[in-house]
């Protein structure tokens, strides 16, 4: 029987309202709360809740042999708590099975790892605390925004206590090698690299 690692990414951006020139200096609230709530409710009913139910059924039917990894951005968690707490409850039900590993990422699904190490560390710590709060797990694997990786990012992630990082199984980097194996960082062999198979995933 083939062994595969299923990894799901959940991110929900925050919508900004239409902000006209004449609003400058008069209106300091930039968020489109109506669009945020209506979009999230639609996504919850059509995607997040049905997917959580299907995954929970698969775990129960396979008596713990079906396991997945789940990465949920901090902005998504904040909006779920505000608008669709039933989605968080569905993820908590998955966490209670012991068959779902929650990964850590930057809190706002940002590109900060490329710009500012101190802010990168701050955002990762903030997200790590949210995973502990909601799902009672201490993440061991890191998933950077858009799976961005460099040896420096790898070193930063290892310093923050992570055992591994998920990154892109890019053909131009791998060459003839397969993304279906566990690799390690060239600058830090103790950091495991798990690669996305771009042919089999979206």
Explain the overall architecture.
- By secondary structure, this protein is an alpha/beta fold.
- The protein has one domain (6-13, 56-196): 7-stranded beta/alpha barrel (Alpha-Beta Barrel).
- The chain is built from six helices and seven strands, in the order βαβααβαβαβαββ.
- It has helices at residues 33-61, 74-83, 85-96, 117-135, 151-159, 171-174; strands spanning 6-10, 68-72, 100-102, 141-143, 164-168, 183-184, 192-196.
- The strands form two sheets. The chain has a four-stranded mixed sheet with strand order 4-5-7-6, with helices on one face. The chain has a three-stranded parallel sheet with strand order 1-2-3.
- α1 links the parallel β1 and β2.
- α1 (33-61) packs parallel to α3 and α2 crosses α3.
- The longest helix is centred in the first third of the chain and has 29 residues, at 33-61.
- The radius of gyration is 18 Å and the shape is globular.
- It starts with 5 loop residues before the first strand and ends in a 6-residue tail after the last strand.
- The model has no long low-confidence stretch (mean pLDDT 91).
């Amino acid at each position: 029987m083939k062994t595969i690692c299923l990894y799901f990414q959940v991110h929900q951006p925050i919508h900004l309202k239409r902000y006209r020139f004449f609003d400058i200096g008069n209106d300091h609230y930039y968020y489109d709360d109506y669009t945020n709530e209506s979009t999230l409710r639609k996504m919850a009913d059509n995607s997040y809740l049905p997917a959580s139910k299907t995954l929970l059924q698969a775990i129960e039917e396979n008596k713990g042999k079906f396991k997945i990894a789940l990465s949920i951005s901090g902005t998504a968690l904040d909006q779920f708590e505000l608008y669709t707490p039933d989605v968080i409850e569905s993820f908590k039900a998955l966490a209670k099975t012991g068959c779902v590993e929650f990964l850590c990422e930057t809190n706002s699904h940002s590109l900060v790892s490329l710009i500012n190490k101190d802010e990168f560390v701050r955002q990762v710590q903030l997200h790590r605390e949210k995973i502990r709060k909601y799902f009672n797990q201490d993440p061991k694997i890191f998933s950077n925004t858009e799976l961005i990786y460099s040896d420096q990012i790898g070193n930063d992630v290892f310093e923050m206590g992570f055992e591994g990082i998920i990154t892109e199984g890019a053909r131009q980097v791998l060459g003839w090698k397969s993304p279906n194996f566990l690799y390690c960082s060239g600058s830090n062999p103790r950091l495991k690299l798990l690669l996305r198979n771009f042919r089999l995933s979206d």
